[in-house]
Amino acid sequence: MIQSLDPRIAREKINEENNIAPLTEMDNWETYEVFHQKKRGDQHIHVGIVHAPNPEMAFLFGKEQYGRRGISVNMWVVKTSNVFASDYDDSDIFDTVPEKQYREAGGYKVMSKINKYKKENTL
Amino acid sequence: MYGNAYIDPNEKPKSIIDGEDPIKLADFEARIARGEKIEPKDWMPREYRKQLIRMIEQHAHSEIIGALPEGTWITRAPGFKRKLALMAKVQDEVGHAQLLYSAAETLGKSREAMINDLITGKSKYSNVFNYPAYTWADACVIAWLIDAGAIINQVANAKGSYGPYGRALDRICTEESFHLKYGHDNVVTLATGTPVQRKMVQEALTRWWPPIMHFFGPSDKISNHTEILMRWKVKMATNDDMRQQFLNMYVPKIWDLGLTVPDANLKKNEETGLWNYTEPDWDEFKRVINGGGPCNAERLAVRRMAEEKGRWVRAALLNKSEKYVTPLA
Amino acid sequence: MEHIKELLYKMADDLLILGHRNSEWTGLGPILEEDIAFSSMAQDKIGHAQALFQILFELGEAEPDTNAFMREAKQFHNSQLVELPNDDYDFSSVRHFLFDHADQIRFNMLSESSFEPLAKVARKIKGEIKYHVFHADIWLVKLGNGTEESKARMQSALNMAWNYALGIFEEGDYELQLQSENIFAGEKELQKRWLEAINPIIEKANLKIPAESDWNPILGGRKGYHTEYLDQLVNEMSEVFRIEPNTEW
Predict the structure, then answer these.
(1) Which class in CATH covers the domain with range C2-243?
(2) Which of B112, B133, B302 sits opposite A25 (nearest CB)?
(3) Number of domains within chain B
(4) Long-range contacts of A66-73 (CB under 8 A, 24+ apart)
(5) Which structural domain range is residue B45 located in?
(6) Which of chain C's residues have a Cβ under 8 Å away from the Cβ of A64?
(7) Complex ipTM, two decimals?
(8) pLDDT tens across B138-158, in order?
């Protein structure tokens, strides 16, 4: 019998040779991805995962694992298997040629035209 | 809280990149050299994956086992403030285990497999937790100095190359700074308190000093193996560097309290800036890591008890139709 | 003031003792995530107890640490339900369910109490208790609808806990005065509302409340009669504090 200094453990009266069957696959359930919103008006952001057997419990767990210091006002949990994630091997898919200035604010420069016009017309 | 991952010194240092695709390897190394992070689904060398799993898993085990010596004092912590703080601290350690197991899972080892390796003794955890917390003051010394050591290690590792581990460590370091303050406050209160309290804390420090010196592990053998792991930003600092950093930051704080560190040779060499100390007993370290410490048997038996007691609960909620999917990040 | 003190003591002691019992799960829970959640709730309970001991202190009683950690077991006013050992997760979660519903309703009633310090605490901790009840309900329903083993375990835990839970509502000496001064509407009213609240959840969990003919409230806790388990827990709680009771720890 384990002689523990910990009264909680001593109460359990544990044998040293308490071999147990190994945990089987999924014993700790599936995983959920947790997203929280720090304050109203912010986007939800991913903060990590929890193991949980259903969405309600994923929320119960996510709330304490990721929000216990009071930094969330809202939380989403999504089963990992329901997330479609792009592949890092395909990250060049996000590369784009630099000529697409027509869709950037910086692609529109009008001051030189205005100045030229003002000068020519002595406004 | 955690020390450095224990790497078996007898492991064959044969080239760990044998058989890797040279082009992929070059891309991988270039990415790390640019300071970019590696993410779960990226290509990575076998040895990178293996070492990271081992390291993060050991770290996670250390957190869950580390909850036990301090947990010894949960019901007995004196007064509301200490009781609530200790509960929150031990809770954080359990939370850290959860974060770290999650990070290790992204590398392809399930949490169940890691727990199985822990409870059968196949996988290691930080050696310090194989020592008992005899008195309340032991719990205070652990909270201050073991967590201080852990922060040094974790701050270094947080800059490592593996994204999920770094993210977990950032969060962990924030919480550890509360632990460190809490631990220091406890030790200061005892050291500046009544003669009985002072005696308690001195005795605890004397007991914990050897495990603290063991905490960062023996000097690294500079091998090809360690060099590659450092290049890959898996291993971020040498054991000796971290031990020196710890001594430099905390020995003066201990001495400030008029407490005695049980090492007559402990002294800073002002020229080199390095601390001299009596070489820790590494035979004792090996004996304890291989199961011979005062609490090894208890720690694993308690984990097995906890897993077994929870089994019916977990089984009751199991969805038979679900399949395990590796967490994303 | 005796009537208010009596009310505060029984509430504070319930929370202090249950918080300690629940804290024993820290690091030993059925799964990491639940370990964390359960620990948070244990901290909340002890924190709520502390707030009530603070009010008692302001009413002239000993300061909170001394009051909470220096009394003998027979001076405690908690119901016996909260002092029983944790046993397995079945009993722990059923106790959590039965107690926390009563706790939530009690504090809801008190949030409109004419005794403002207590009403203020009640309003402040509302969100925390809401989580506790939310947590308790989901677990009860899921385990009650789980495997044959979990169903059987939850039913026998409910049977075992039931008469102890009825002991929560043991009346004190000042029920009428508390009501007439609009401080607290009383244990009878609380029990009535409690039954209304827990019934539908227990039904959803496919569990059965013991037949009314078997209801036999286990009383005495409020008057200082306790099981051997409280003695042991109180000694443990105060072990360090008693080494030097008049000093900071």
Answers:
(1) mainly alpha
(2) B112
(3) 1
(4) A66/A34, A66/A36, A67/A36, A68/B91, A68/C36, A68/C40, A71/A36, A71/A38, A72/A36, A72/A37, A72/A38, A73/A37, A73/A38, A73/A39, A73/A40
(5) 37-317
(6) 33, 36-37, 40
(7) 0.96
(8) 999 999 999 999 999 999 999
